[in-house]
Please model this.
Amino acid sequence: MSSLQRYSSFLSFWTLAVMLLSGSSPGAKRPKTLQIYAIDVEGGQATLIVSPSGQSLLVDTGWPGFNGRDAARIVAAGKAAGIQQIDYVVITHYHRDHVGGTPQLADRMPIKVFMDHGPNQEDSEVTREDYAAYQKLLNTSNHVVLRPGDGVPLKDATVRVLTAAGERLPDPLPAAGTANPYCSSEPETPVDNSENARSVGLLVTYGKFRFLDLGDLTKRKELEMACPNNMLGTIDLFLVSHHGSDQSNTKALVYALHPTAAIIDNGAHKGGSAAVWDIVHASPGLQDLWQLHYAVDAGPAHNSPEELIANPEENCQGKYIRVTAQSNGTFTVLNSQNGFHKTYHK
Model:
């Protein structure tokens, strides 16, 4: 046997040994996963969800302007996820940091279906302006108005609409509906007539894995689902509402959800409230709180360790946080800035 043959045999032996020790075998298939990308759009929202079969759902499109920065970051995340089009875009509400980037994204990537809560209901000039720009796209695209109880037909996963246009599910989800002991300490919350309170809220389920995204839903609407009974049950991953703003994220809701991990899609100076950080960080069962940005105004005591922050510097490259979830409820969160990752088991 030649030296090259002996070396090749040696490599084959150790490759097999490593596979056996790791519990895999030659030809073994990796488990199918649901992918979630929390894309950095500097304090707005753009959350890309890709099913195991490759269908895609994008929740919101970030800001307009900035030379197409947010659209470019969404396209880059799509490329990393292996997709070339967006099957469904859900616009949670018509504030600029959620809908503003839609025209620029549509110029860069095919979008098959737009979904939203229906007409704009906020009387403000900037919101009317952004809604009008969005409406122009609807004239040439498929469009669906969502209502609580509706679903988004994403293959291999269940996407259920919980809130839309100020309305919510009338009945608890399966296995939910128990009395919430955290309601008694909640103060009265004001009525919110902005688009935030009309956010589309989604629960994404893949087997035993549950991911919650309520857009910018504000406190009064949160408490309608949390008190006196918890209508949503518990979840595995929570996208902290409203970028971690203290207009949202009541203790009664967050504690009742009992998330294993959470992600804040904050900016350096937008969202990431110290008070909200405390609530989410202290919620029962939470293992880790991940952040898209270091929250400068919150200070060191109200930021997670650097390995959990995708963009620790204010002037950043827009790194994302990626989640891969298995149907048995196991999921892994990856910080694309430093490669740090952690796996959470059911």
User: Anything to note?
Assistant: The domain at 30-341 is CATH 3.60.15.10 (Metallo-beta-lactamase; Chain A). The mean pLDDT is 92. Helices lie at 3-21, 69-81, 96-99, 102-108, 125-138, 219-226, 251-257, 274-281. The first strand starts at residue 33 and ends at 38.
